[in-house]
Amino acid sequence: MQPETEISMEINPTNLETQKLLEFKHAGINRASIGVQTLNDDALKILGRDHTSSDSLRCLKEAVQIFSGHVSVDMIFGFPWTYFKTLAEGVKAGLPDSDEVADMYLAAVEILKEKGFEQYEVSNFAKNDNYCLHNIAYWTGQQYLGVGPGSHGRVWCHKATSTKPQREARVQTLEPENWLWEVEQFGHATRRRVVQSTQDM
After folding, report:
1. C-beta separation of 120 from 81 below 8 A
2. How far apart, in Å, do the first and last CA atoms of the chain sit?
3. Regions of the chain short of the pLDDT cut 70
4. Beta sheet of 31-37, edge-to-edge order
5. CA 167 to CA 198: how far, in whole Å?
6. What is the pTM of this model?
7. Which residues pair with 86 in a beta bridge?
8. How many whole angstroms separate alpha carbon 11 and alpha carbon 23?
9. Angle at the Cα of 92 from the Cα atoms of 91 and 98, rounded to 5 degrees
10. N or C of the chain: less Cβ packing under 10 Å?
11. Would you state the pLDDT for residue 89?
């Protein structure tokens, strides 16, 4: 494997996974992608997440030290119930409209720019050229492997029936127990393979 190969792992910022960050690093992971999602604890509960905003910030702080700044953060906005009329009564306001979501996006772009982040893809930002290589591969039609339950990858394949290679979207089995069983039985756990068109890429 080339030294510049990115081996990224998606990490939920729970106490359990935060305690394992060093183990992940020693196992060869060189980029951590932290699934923060939102720093609003009420929204995290609605999304069914097992962590709090404090857990996220603690995990992020440790990950930045352990992975030398090679850390990604997944944040979402515009999801259902972003706004609440009366939280105590659990009244949901539903999805924000497209104008509100566009305003949130533009505000995020401006705030991140002010903080020294460079926008290098539609929804990806980086500091100090620490671009996420698999994001770039996704947007530029290159290969990347997805390994583990529920992971996605894009692979160029040479078929016996075609002179030109085809790019396939591959999705791994979602359930961890089933994924492991399939790997042990078949050597892989690819649940779905879809040949991509030029438009897909």
Report:
1. no
2. 26
3. 80-96, 201
4. 8-11, 31-37, 71-75
5. 9
6. 0.79
7. 91
8. 12
9. 150
10. N
11. 39
C-alpha 98/C-alpha 2 separation (Å) is 43
19 vs 22: CA distance, rounded Å: 7
Place of tokens 């396939």: 168
**Contact between 173 and 185 (Cβ < 8 Å):** no
* Amino acid, single-letter form, for residue 47: L
Contacts of 58 (CB under 8 A, 6+ apart): 13, 18
Structure tokens at 128: 């100090």
Largest CA distance in the chain: 62
